[in-house]
Structure formats: structure tokens, C-alpha cells
Amino acid sequence: MATILSVSASPSATSRTARLLRHLDDRLKAQGHQVIPLDVRTLPAEALLGADFGHPAIVETSALVERADGIVIGTPIYKAAYSGLLKALLDLLPQYALAGKTVLPLATGGTTAHVLAIDYALRPVLNSMGPAHITPGWFTLDKDITVGDDGTLTVSPGSAEALAQVTDQFSLALGGRPVLAAAG
């Protein structure tokens, strides 16, 4: 199956975006894919902020992007745009780092006013990096993602269904197995 790089671009250690991605990673693994998680916030600040293309962490991240068949990019939306952390990372990758890749854009945010940020802010930047295919993405409201005291993630039914659909479309684009609904 495919190798997928799952990129969380949230600056927060307790990020709903990252938790949501790790939840979707499990679905992709169940479909037979190898998933490599990457939390951009763990990359050294001096590499990102100093625009150090030769920094070992940036070289390693570029190699992960190159190795991946597909990339899931999750970002919180701030002021109608993707995170500055994601912008810093994308600026340090080669111009056509996504060439030949299938990409799934995902976003989280506090209000439906930001729902078009995927299409009007993130998708054009990703497209400029030459992917073979950008699958339909999904915006999830923060209020639809809850984390229990034990760390378990719950996604509201409507959002969970939509996320499953876009994740499965992405998986199928990479040659994954469809998920069969449980017999009820």
C-alpha cells in the first residue's frame, strides 16, 4: 500500500487538529497504508524561523515528503488562513515538493466563517507545489471535536461521517482498500 505523511500544522501541544489527524491516521492504517505522523511544531524554531534550508530537520522533513505517496495536511484556521507554522514549512520545501503526490487538505476552526479557507487559502498554495491530485478536503468546527479526560477523541456524527468520506476518497486515490461498514 501507500506511504502517507500526516502533517499537523498546529502550534499547540494540545491541538484538536493533531488529535483529529492521529484519529484519521488510524483509519488509513486500517486500510493498509503506512502512516508517518509529523507535528510541525516539533521542528526546531531556528530552522523554521531562520529559513535554514540546510538544517538537518528540514532536510529530513523534505526526505519524508519525497518518500510519501500521499500527504494529509491538517491545519487550524487563524484569521481566514492556514497556520503560520504551515506557511514556514511549505516555504522551506522545494518548489515542486508535492509533484506526483496525492494530497488531502483538512482544517479546523472556531467558526463556519472560515470554511472556505481550504479552497481559497490552502489549496492554491498546495497546487503551486505540483501535486498529481488534491482530493476534496474538509473543515471541522472545533466544537465538533471533543477530547475526554482519558484522551479519547470524539467527533460529532455529522463531521465524523464527512471526515470518513474524504479520508476514504484519499485512500482509494492511493490504491487503498475501502472500509466496509459494520453489520448492524
UniProtKB/TrEMBL annotation:
Q: Which InterPro entries has this protein been placed in?
A: Flavoprotein-like_sf (IPR029039), FMN_Rdtase-like_dom (IPR005025), NAD(P)H-dep_FMN_reductase (IPR051814), NADPH-dep_FMN_reduc_SsuE (IPR020048)
Q: Which UniProt keywords apply?
A: Flavoprotein, FMN, Oxidoreductase
**NCBIfam families associated with the record:** FMN_reduc_SsuE
Q: Does the keyword Oxidoreductase apply?
A: yes
In terms of superkingdom, the source organism counts as: Bacteria
The residue stretches assigned to a coiled coil in this entry are: none
For this entry, the protein name equals: NADPH-dependent FMN reductase
Its GO biological process terms? Answer: alkanesulfonate catabolic process
What Pfam families is this protein classified in?
Answer: FMN_red
Under Enzyme Commission nomenclature, its number is 1.5.1.38
User: In this protein, which residues make up the domain named NADPH-dependent FMN reductase-like?
Assistant: 3-144
Keyword Phosphoprotein assigned to the entry: answer is no
